[in-house]
Each structure stands twice: as C-alpha cells, then as structure tokens.
Recover the amino acids of this structure.
C-alpha cells in the first residue's frame, strides 16, 4: 500500500455531514487517509477502479467504507449490493451510516451482507464518538483478510 | 255405489260356496223375488237370512275368518256375535260384550241407525246404509277412542233382523289423510310458486304462491302453456329443462328470468322435479319457484360495495405508503439539519470559545438544548408511528428479564441516583418482546425521572389482581400528579409537568398505551400530587397461566 491509497472511503452527499465526519476522524488522526465520494456512482468508480479512478488497483482496497443510503444517481443499497456481490470487493467492510432507521432497509442491508448499520445520532457528541470508534475499530483493531484470497485471478498469496 | 255394495255382498255369499244356506229375500224396491233374482243380481240389495242351526254355525265360521272386526247386533242394539278381530280391536273378551249394547264399543251413530222411523222399517233404514262406509268412533275397553269405518249388512235370523257390522280401524288412514290435507294446505299457502306442468308444458296446477308471484290466477293459468311466463325468445330454455325432466333428473336452484302477467320481469330460482305415475313413468314436472329479484339486487349492491371497498382499500394502501414515505423523510431529512445545527454549534463552542462572550455561549447552549429536544421529539414520534404500523411478533416472554434489562440500562445512565428497586416475581406472557421492553423503558424511565427529588427513590414492579385479571404495576414514590389530569395522561404531547422541572416530549405514555392496546390490554394510572404514581396494565383477555413458566406466580396478565 502506498501512502496515497486512502484507507477510508466516505460516501456522503451532504457537505455538512462530510465536514462533521472528517472533523471527528481527524481527531483520531485518521483524517488524512480519507477519500470522499459524493454519490453512489463515484463510490463504485473508486471501488471498482474505473472512470476517474481507473488507475487504482484492486490490490489496495479501502479498509472501511462509510456508506450513506440516500445518495444521488446510484443509491447506497445498490453500491452495497455491487460491492458484496463481487468476489474482488466482497471482503471490504462496509458500514452504513444513515439518518434513517427504516426497518425494511435495515433488513435489506443485512441480507446484502453489510458489516454494520449505524444511525447517525442527532447529538454531535454521540455522532463524533461513534465515528471515532468506527475508525479505530476497523483500521486499528480489525484484522483484514489476505487480499489475494479474494482475487479470482490470483489463487495463492505471492 | 249401491250396485257396488250389492256386488260385494253378493260375492260374499258366493264365497261360502253354499248358496243353499241362504235365500234372498225379495227386494222391496223392485218387487222381484229372491229366488228368481239371486244369480242375476238385484240392482238394489239382497238380504240374507240364516235358515238353520247348521247355517248359523257356518255363518259364525265365516265371521270368524273375516279379516275385519265383525260385530253382529240385534235390533235392540245388543251384541249377538263378534269375532276375534273385534275382541282385539276393542280390547274385550267375547263374553264381556255378548248381550251388551253396542254403544259400549261404538258410543254414537250405530245403534241409532237400527231404529226405524215412522214410515220406515228397520230394513229400509238399513237398506240406505248398506255397503256405505260410515265413519264413526270406536271406544276400547280402556276408554280410548279411535276412528273406525263400518260397513253394515243386515241379515234375517230366527231371532229376527240382525245387523252385521264390519269394523275397520282407520287411525292410520286418518293420519295419512290429515297429513295429505296438511301438505295440500302447505302447498296452497306457500309463498313459493308451486305448479305442475305436463311434459308438453301445459300448466296443470297452480297455487296461491304462483298466483302472487306471476300475477295469473289459477283459473287463468291452468291449461295454458308455461311459455306465458317466459320472456320473449326464451322458449328454448324451457324445452331444455323439460328434456332434463323427461330423463328423470331434478333441476335445483335454476336461476331464470320470468315475466309476470303485468309484463314486469322478475328473477326467480326454480327447483323442478319430475312427476311420475304409479309405474314410474315421468308424466310431468313440478316446479317450485322463488322470487329472487331482491336477492339479485342485493347481490348487485354487495358487488358494488365490494368494489367500492377495494377502491377504498387501495386508497388506504396508498395513504399508508405515503405515510411511510413521510416517516422516512421525517426521520432522514428532518434529522439531518438537526444534526448539523448540533454539530456545528458544538464545534463553535469547542473551537471558538475564547471569541464568544458569556452571553453568546449561553445562546449557543440554548440552541443545542433545543436541538436535543427536537431530536427526542422526532425519535419519539417515529417510534409511535412505528408501533402503529408494526405487526406484533408474539413470543412467550419472561417479564422479569425485560425489567432487569431496562433497570440495568437505567442504573448505568443514572449512576448518581439512589434508587431502591423492588421487583416482584412477574409472569411469563405472550407478547412482542421488543415492544414490551419499550413499555418498561417508558414506564421505568418515567419512574426514575419523576423520583429525582427523592432520596431514596423507591420503584416497585409487581402484579396485582384487578377484576379477576392479573395486572402488572409500576409504582414510584415520585412527585406524582393530580388525578384531575389523569385523562390527559396518555394523549400525545400532553405533559403534566413543566419542561424546566422534568424534561420530556409527551409522547412516551401515548406510545405505551398504543403498545398495550395492540396487545389487547389496557393501561391506567393512579396518583396523587407529590404522592407518587402507579401505572397498571393488562395484556389481552387471556387469564390462563403460561405453562412454560414453572415459577409463574399467578396467571397471565
């Protein structure tokens, strides 16, 4: 992994939420390795290394995707479905970070294989705490799988 | 009739095979001599006379062998002779009746016939009744009466004129006759149109119901073709029906349009059965028709109502979808700006505190407090609507477990409070555990909240028997409320305390009530101002103890 490869992909269309989330993450010194996608299409381009991210490699996936559900163009459920449905990306942890707690959506997300589902707390302190914990947990505490095991074109670790 | 009866009595004589024992007395009406007329037969009557002792004995044998009860009576009305059938029929022994007046067994109508009027001899009086079935009443030894038919035939004997009466018990026939009469009356008085038609469709009988239904009187209808009832062009249908009937098949509840005499069309339901003669051949059809015009109309109305209902259901569905969408936007779109106000006001305080005057900091604090309040309000409202829309997912649940979970959460959230918990053994109940936990969250956090001034706060949870039903209660020693306002307690946005004293949205108890009602139970409260409050609730009407709980302290709630 090169330093410029972001470790967190934040998919969020609302600029204010982006600011607040980045603020929270920066307090844990995680703010520098964040890529922000402002809609679902941009998120998919990044994750599947295409479009303006064609130069990226599947070898350097983000270690966490924070995904909003209500997004322009391609919504969060479609992004989740695409990522979890592709062997090259299915191991990437996706945490839904949404304002809603629609039960039907909650169930749908888990059926698609989401790793966690968090309703953004209204209270900023709670929100900040949650985001920080997420960052620390997935980037520091969690052990990601060996990448090659999810690359159909490469059967064993080199 | 007279000829018939003569024939039978004549045949009777022949049957004995010994005509010589009898001679025919001259018929008094046509002046003929019996001796000349015995074989050719008298057109009116014949009187037999017993000639000798021998013939008397033969006669006795003849009577004894008769299938009917036979009683021989003399002119005075005394019984001279009777057979075993008569004994059986009247319940007497022979010796009990011989010499007794016939009135003992036939109280009326028999002895009287033996009396000659002034111009008539006994023979004449009898002659008019020979062979005619006379319906009278017989009386048994035990006093019970029964209907009889008697046939009289006089005979001359050494003792003078005797009358032989063949007596038949006609109880069974009477029952049949009465039944037939009753059935005929039923047919006639039936509201259903009942008619009989021949196989070529000619109306043979027509009851009052038919008259009423179709407008034709029996006089007008009988003899007409059934086609007078068919709407123009419907003749084929009648032919088809008759074809079925000829096959001996019955047609039930056949719905068809008919035309009344006045031209009005009516819907009728027909049941058509073949009418067979004694050999089983189909000779006609009986039709029972019922007016179903109103029924048809009602069916039409029901159909219309159903389709209206379906439309309404679709509207309700659409409204529900809209509500869903609204709920979504409330939860998503309304929360987002709120979160931003809270987030940036917090950052303002944190990062620019030095630049703010104490007054400005106070304002920011108010902004943040309001955000908090609105956030709670949105959450509670969403919760309330969610309870309304959620299907209950029932499960036998130990209430103690739920209470313990909530108590633990509350204790953690209020570490500096001194609270004495008294939780009794609670039953296992069939409920939606997630919603039931919501009930305890609301009731117990209320109890914690409103006991804030108490040291220690005492919060009890237990059960109590209320009108034969077990109710769960949550009691606290908090500030309580005046029972004056108890009616407002469970209404949305109704608060009995000022926000400065006790925070809250006024939605919690409304939610609790909605959950309890969804479970078929009820909730109520008792309180006094500054004297604590107790909330009671029941779940459903079930009062069976849940067998799953071995330590169940007393029935479902």
């Amino acid at each position: 992994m090169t330093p410029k490869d972001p470790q967190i992909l934040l998919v969020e269309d609302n600029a204010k939420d982006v600011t607040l989330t980045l603020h929270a993450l920066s307090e844990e010194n995680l703010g520098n390795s964040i890529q922000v996608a402002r809609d679902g299409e941009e998120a998919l381009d990044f994750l599947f290394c295409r479009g303006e991210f064609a130069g990226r490699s599947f070898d350097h996936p983000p270690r966490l995707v924070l995904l909003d559900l209500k997004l322009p163009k391609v919504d969060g459920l479609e992004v989740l479905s695409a990522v979890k449905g592709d062997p090259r990306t299915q191991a990437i942890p996706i945490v839904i970070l949404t304002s809603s707690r629609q039960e039907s959506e909650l169930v749908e997300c888990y059926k698609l294989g989401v790793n966690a589902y968090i309703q953004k707390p209204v209270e900023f302190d709670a929100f900040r705490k949650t985001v920080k914990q997420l960052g620390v947990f997935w980037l520091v505490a969690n052990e990601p799988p060996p990448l090659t095991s999810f690359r159909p074109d490469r059967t064993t670790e080199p | 009739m007279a000829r018939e009866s003569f024939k039978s009595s004549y045949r009777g004589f022949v049957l004995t095979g010994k005509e010589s024992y009898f001679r025919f007395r001259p018929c008094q009406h046509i002046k003929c001599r019996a001796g000349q007329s015995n074989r050719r037969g008298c057109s009116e009557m014949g009187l037999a006379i017993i000639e000798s002792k021998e013939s008397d004995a033969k006669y006795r044998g003849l009577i004894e062998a008769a299938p009917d009860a036979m009683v021989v009576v003399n002119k005075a009305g005394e019984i001279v002779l009777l057979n075993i059938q008569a004994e059986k029929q009247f319940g007497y022994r022979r010796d009990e009746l011989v010499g007794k007046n016939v009135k003992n067994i036939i109280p009326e109508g028999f002895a009287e016939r033996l009396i000659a009027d002034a111009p008539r001899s006994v023979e004449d009086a009898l002659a008019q009744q020979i062979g005619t079935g006379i319906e009278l009443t017989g009386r048994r030894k035990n006093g019970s009466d029964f209907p009889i038919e008697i046939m009289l035939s006089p005979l001359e004997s050494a003792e003078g004129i005797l009358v032989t009466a063949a007596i038949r018990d006609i109880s069974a026939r009477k029952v049949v006759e009465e039944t037939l009469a009753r059935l005929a009356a039923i047919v006639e008085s039936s509201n259903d149109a009942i008619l009989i038609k021949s196989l070529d469709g000619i109306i043979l009988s027509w009851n009052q119901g038919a008259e009423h239904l179709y407008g034709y009187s029996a006089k007008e209808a009988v003899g007409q073709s059934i086609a007078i009832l068919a709407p123009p062009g419907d003749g084929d249908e009648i032919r088809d029906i008759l074809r079925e009937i000829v096959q001996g098949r019955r047609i039930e509840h056949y719905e068809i349009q008919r035309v009344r005499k006045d031209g009005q069309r009516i819907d009728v339901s027909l049941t058509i059965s073949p009418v067979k003669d004694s050999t089983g051949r189909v000779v006609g059809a009986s039709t029972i028709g019922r007016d179903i015009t109103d029924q048809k109309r009602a069916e039409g109305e029901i159909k219309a109502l159903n389709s209206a209902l379906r439309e309404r259901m679709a509207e309700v569905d659409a409204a529900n979808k809209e509500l869903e969408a609204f709920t979504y936007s409330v939860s998503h779109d309304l929360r987002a700006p709120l979160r931003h106000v809270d987030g940036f006001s917090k950052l303002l305080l944190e990062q620019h505190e030095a630049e703010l005057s104490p007054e400005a900091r106070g304002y920011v604090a108010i902004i943040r407090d309001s955000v908090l309040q609105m956030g709670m309000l949105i959450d509670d409202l969403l919760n309330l609507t969610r309870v309304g829309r959620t299907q209950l997912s029932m499960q036998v649940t130990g209430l103690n477990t739920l209470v313990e979970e909530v108590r633990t959460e509350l204790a953690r959230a209020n570490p500096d409070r001194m609270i004495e918990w008294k939780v009794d053994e609670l039953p296992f109940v069939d409920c939606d555990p997630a919603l039931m936990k919501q009930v305890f969250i609301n009731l117990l956090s209320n109890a914690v909240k409103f006991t804030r001034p108490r040291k220690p706060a005492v919060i009890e949870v237990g059960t109590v028997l209320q009108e034969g039903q077990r109710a769960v209660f949550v009691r606290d020693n908090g500030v309580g409320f005046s029972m004056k306002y108890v009616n407002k307690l469970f209404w949305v946005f109704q608060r009995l305390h000022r926000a400065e004293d006790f925070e809250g949205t006024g939605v919690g108890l409304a939610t609790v009530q909605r959950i309890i009602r969804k479970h078929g139970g009820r909730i109520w409260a008792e309180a006094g101002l500054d004297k604590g409050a107790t909330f009671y609730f029941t779940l459903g009407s079930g009062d069976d103890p849940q067998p799953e709980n071995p330590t169940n302290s007393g029935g479902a709630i």
